[in-house]
């Protein structure tokens, strides 16, 4: 059946709308890439004007595509968190020994932060005009990490005959310890420990907490235990 004139007009409108949506998506991506680069180079204090210049667009275009600076910052946080999790998530797997699993996760997290200190600072602080203490996206990511670790510990505790109800609390205690230790270390103008030393200590503390928890239930763990044997 042939299309009528109104049908053809609607098709043209839909096509133009689709192309405009694609154009806006491309521009948003262009601006977010520029924002990541600008914050990475100059820190959270970087302004919208510099982000626009890096993206090669007028400042007004940024505000047409994002409601305000807070909206831009939230999308930027999500982009940074995606990159962090792309590195970290593959390490939160039951592979190798317990020692290997702890080292893999801690080294990767600290390594990403050392490579991206300004991006990490932005996650915690936000920009000067849009502070982000307790930002929902950051909190949600920490929660997701805690839940993933909790699920693994729940399986381990169940197999070892330990109280599975404690798995989630322990997982979030470990996430909090690691996060607080690293944040304090980063805040020091003269750091008493190198990144490698800090990582080694956090790995040691994590192992000791896990070993002590198992021992409280009459189970002796050794660092060379295969994680897969505990699941």
From TrEMBL:
Coiled coil: none annotated. Gene3D superfamilies: Tetracycline Repressor, domain 2 (1.10.357.10). Pfam families: TetR_C_32, TetR_N. Residues 9-22 have a biased composition (Basic and acidic residues). GO terms for molecular function: DNA-binding transcription factor activity; transcription cis-regulatory region binding. Residues 25-84 form the HTH tetR-type domain. Residues 1-22 are annotated as: Disordered. The keyword DNA-binding applies. The keyword Membrane does not apply. This is TetR/AcrR family transcriptional regulator. It comes from Nocardia stercoris.
